[in-house]
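Progress against Task 2.4 (sequence-to-structure conversion) is shown through the following example record, which the project officer requested during the mid-term review.
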Amino acid sequence: MVGREAYPFYDSSMLSSTYAHAARLAVLNFFDADPKEYEVVFTTNASTALRIVGESYPYARGTESRLVIPTDAHNSVNGLREFARKAGAQVQYVPMEAPGKQTFQAPDDGADSLFVLTGQSNLSGLKGNLSLLAEAKFRGYDTVLDAAALAPTTAISLRSLNGSVDAMAISLYKLIGYPTGVGCLVAKKSFLTKLQKPWFSGGSVLIVQVCRSHFREARKWSQINFRCSPPPSITDNYSFA
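Structure tokens generated for the chain above:
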């Protein structure tokens, strides 16, 4: 079923929805991601995709919630520590090299904790060890792969990573070159359900109660819930070879 991107009253709106749905499937196919498991949220760039996760991740104040990031990371990954600190979570840096037994500590008391790995440094060109994702997942972390610099140079198969990636930030501009201002978050539907977006707007909610309550009911379609702006222009020429 194609989710509606715009008002359903016009043929042009429904055509936009059709193109957007086809573009999502193209992205999932390119990264060998199961469409039953993963969803695509279009963003303006990879940094916005990372921000969606950073500002919405449910760190639990007063617990041992933790954000773990590599020492050689995309600056937009480093910036996620500000959300973690504001939420009262610990921030830990680890080397990008091969994992060791002391690299990760399991989150205490099962506290929600996040590991974000930059797949390829845009400073040194060093590629991160993707096995760190599996190790982090094994130890109870939710995992994010920053693939902004990795995707243009390396084939990524989410199936081959065996579920170790909960979400992945992509710059489609860096991957394709045109148009600019297009990125996406490829994420497990279960992971998007876990996120708690701190604000809402437009058509992302079904019900909003005003004056006496802060009650709101979000739409069930996670892509709409986390879309922070209208999707970029997508046509039938926007595809992957």
